[in-house]
Amino acid sequence: RAQHQRDWKARQRAGIYKITCSSNGRVYVGETKCIPSRWISHKSDLNRFNRRSNSLLQEDWDKFGESAFTFEVLEETEKDKALLYGRELFYIRKFHSEGYELYNKERLEE
Fold first, then answer.
1. Which residues of the chain have pLDDT under 50?
2. What is the 3-state secondary structure (H, E, C) of 30-82?
């Protein structure tokens, strides 16, 4: 079963994604080597009040509920960690420059 899951993940798309809170317009930009499982993972963490979650994102999730959030793929990329990291930072800076409030604004300092 574990090998089957690894094989499935290896076949999935990698890329940059955005989580948006429709109640206040805040966005979270992230990168992943497996797009389909990342949203599931975020929801699972947030529904368990996981301490690894972004605290502001967790606060809004608790306040507005799952239905207030959307997951959107911004770009598909190769499964290269350096490329993913760079493209994630590109989109964080892009949304910040467009006036969006970011959940993960600490990345702007890089």
1. none
2. EEECCHHHHHHHHHHHHHCCCCCCCHHHHHHHHHHCHHHEEEEEEEEECCCHH
